[in-house]
TrEMBL record:
Domain Competence protein CoiA C-terminal: 232-376
Pfam families for this protein: CoiA_C (PF25166), CoiA_N (PF25164), CoiA_nuc (PF06054)
Membrane-traversing stretches: none
UniProt protein name: Competence protein CoiA
Top-level taxonomy: Bacteria, Bacillati, Bacillota, Bacilli, Bacillales
Competence protein CoiA nuclease-like domain residues: 68-224
Domain Competence protein CoiA-like N-terminal: 17-61
InterPro entries hit by this protein: CoiA-like_N, CoiA_C, CoiA_nuc, Competence-induced_CoiA
């Protein structure tokens, strides 16, 4: 831990750049106490780790802090200095006695109170959600920043994200989704932006890197990220997903494939309008190929041109799939309260732009033409190329 109180109640914060000589003098004449549990702590001034306070062995409060890595302590120290250098009222390891939580940094910005958590280790889902909800219910805006060593990017613009990493997803004021991360070793922020998922764990992303002295707090809270998608890459990843899905059977996959086949469809010959990138698809853990196929089976395939399609009808079938766990919703604690159906609605509006539907009222659509199915791979490839060339300007800016 990096903060402690003296016997007189004076707060000592090692987030500031104290010289070792100053701290040696302070240690010789002061006793230090944990602000949270009140136990006595020691001021460690070794050469192997950064200066820090430590509980005595066996302390219940100290069990958490003794597990802190140098990486974590150095990261929150740098983030604290970054904030105070911007003249922001920040408090390192502030313990809120009312909620019994201790964010790494509490700070005030534009009249709002933030709880910054620099998370280097994986914590249970329940704990993450509980801490996030407690912050929100008590006037804080949670700002979770994941350590950059969690990301292992093997392909350009494609990232594999665990459920835990998705918990860090935030939204800019312009409606773009991103995950903030930080590396204290490189002193660099890594913003994983414009996240558009195409499977349970994989997503297309845009990565931006900023040295800590080249970015301000506003740029972290509301980064400028374009809503763009590489269509060639999206199409290739969807094709790979379809192939993997069909070649690795499971009861869940077999149920979907069986329904596809009895509808006289072929997973490899689906219309190009199925499996499209939708910005809010991250709210749905199930691949866009699957939930858009279900929408086609349940609604679109049953209508003739000029017949009406209501939002209520689409939502009824969507909820039915949810109840049978054929479509799974993704848990996003920092975006709690946003309805996953917004992704389906966004897809319907995309079909309007593509001329498949017209919008008659706010909740009513009309089918203009059927989606055309292919009979051969060659026909499918020709249709797909023609489709992406014709609608590139629409699909690349979802």
């Amino acid at each position: 831990m990096l903060t402690a109180n003296t016997k007189s109640g004076t707060r000592v914060c090692l987030g500031y750049d104290y010289k070792k000589e100053t701290l040696l003098k302070l240690r010789s004449k002061e006793d230090f106490f944990c602000p949270e549990c009140g136990e006595r702590v020691s001021l460690k001034l070794g050469d192997q780790r950064i200066y820090h306070f430590a509980h005595k062995r066996g302390s219940m409060c100290g069990d958490f802090y003794e597990r802190e890595s140098v990486y974590h302590m150095e990261g929150k120290r740098q983030l604290f200095q970054w904030l105070i250098n911007q003249k922001i009222n920040a408090h390192l390891e502030y313990y809120d006695r009312e909620i019994h939580q201790r964010p790494d940094i509490m700070f005030f910005y534009n009249g709002k109170k933030y709880a910054l958590e620099f998370q280097c280790s994986t914590i249970p889902e329940k704990e993450f959600i509980k801490r996030t909800n407690t912050y929100c219910q008590n006037g804080y805006i949670p700002l979770w920043i994941i350590s950059d060593n969690h990301f292992k990017q093997k392909e350009r613009n494609v990232l594999s994200l665990s459920n835990f990493q998705f918990f860090f997803l935030r939204k800019t004021f312009d409606g773009v989704f991103y995950i903030p991360s930080y590396c204290p070793e490189k002193r660099s922020f890594h913003l994983v932006g414009s996240v558009i998922s195409f499977s349970v764990k994989k997503a297309l992303v845009q990565s931006s890197h900023y040295q800590i002295n080249h970015i301000k707090i506003w740029d972290l809270l509301n980064p400028k990220i374009l809503k763009q998608v590489r269509l060639d890459q999206w199409s290739a990843e969807i094709e790979k997903f379809n192939f993997y899905w069909s070649m690795h059977p499971s009861p869940k996959k077999n149920s979907f494939l069986h329904e596809v086949y009895i509808q006289n469809l072929n997973l490899f010959l689906l219309p190009p309008e199925i499996g499209l990138p939708v910005h809010h698809s991250i709210f749905i853990e199930t691949s866009p190929t699957i939930w858009q196929t279900y929408l086609y089976i349940d609604v679109l395939s049953k209508k003739n041109p000029k017949e009406k399609i209501s939002i209520e009808e689409v939502e009824f079938h969507f909820k039915k799939r949810l109840s049978r766990k054929e479509v799974i919703i993704r848990k996003l604690p920092q975006l709690d309260g946003m309805r996953p159906f917004v992704a389906v609605n966004e897809y319907l509006l995309l079909l309007v732009k593509l001329g498949i539907l017209t919008r008659k009222t706010g909740t009513l659509f009309e089918l203009q033409r059927h989606l055309s199915k292919s009979k051969t791979n060659r026909e499918k490839e020709e249709k797909k190329q023609e489709f992406y060339q014709k609608y590139h300007h629409i699909l690349s800016k979802i």
